[in-house]
Amino acid sequence: MIRSMTAFARSQSEQDGTDLTWELRSVNHRYLEVFVRLPEELRGLEPVVRERVGARLGRGKLECALRCRWNTAQDASLELDHDRLKGVLEACREIETRSAEATSPGVIDLLRWPGVVREPEPDSGAAQQQALALLDQALDDLVATREREGAQIKAVLEARLAGIEAQSARARARLPEVRQRARAKLQARLEELQAKVDQDRLEQELVLLVQKMDVDEELDRLDGHVSEVRRVLERDEPVGRRLDFLMQEFNREANTLGSKSPDSETTAAAVELKVLIEQMREQVQNVE
User: Fold this and answer.
1) Torsion over CA of 218, 223, 229 and 235, rounded to 10 degrees?
2) Cα(186)–Cα(275) distance, rounded to whole angstroms?
3) Which residue ranges make up each domain of the chain?
4) Residue 123: pLDDT band by 50, 70, 90 thresholds?
5) pTM of the model as a whole
6) pLDDT value at position 215?
């Protein structure tokens, strides 16, 4: 099953006073490139995050962002930093002695002063386990999205492969008539010149002429590439690079077919082949 490289996934959970949200965004890239953004309290998770991503994805530029909000229990008792409070009060009294307009802060103001009330330490260990479980869930969603988009890409590629087969058959059907016309044209030219030639030599010249215009080999290779692409599409692994290589091979055969084209019908088939191949190439750029 082929997979797209463009996808988005989001997972969120709230447990034991910790609200976590993962957002994963992936776009096209030749290799797997992972950018991780974590809150300071969970920075140590980065190697594990990279390992888990690498086990699930083969290619693409992926941004992994984790947002964390620590929720303090409503019934938790307040714990004062007495040294900090004492220092704030002493500073207030000193200001009052220096300025007649200074007023003492209220109790609420003191409680809001940074450091006066000790914040409870979050349980980072439990949050790490929660974050990793949530990451696995987000990766499941991301992979599922890539597979759905990959199925759509596969359908497009299959349609273009059928088009290539049709154009190849169109060019192949012209070959007998093209060869016959080449023979007739050469003989007419000789009759016009009223030249007497050896029949064996004439046959040799015809063989050389037909070989120059013969596109059987290119058409055979095109058919072979079609079969190979279909085989690759059924692989259960990243196949984007292999498909990209096959698009280059398709282009090579289509260009040769166009350059050796013996008539307008074959030229039209070669042009249509290039259009179909380019449409496939655009889709393949997004395949993992």
Assistant:
1) -130
2) 34
3) 7-73+124-144, 79-118, 148-284
4) low
5) 0.73
6) 78
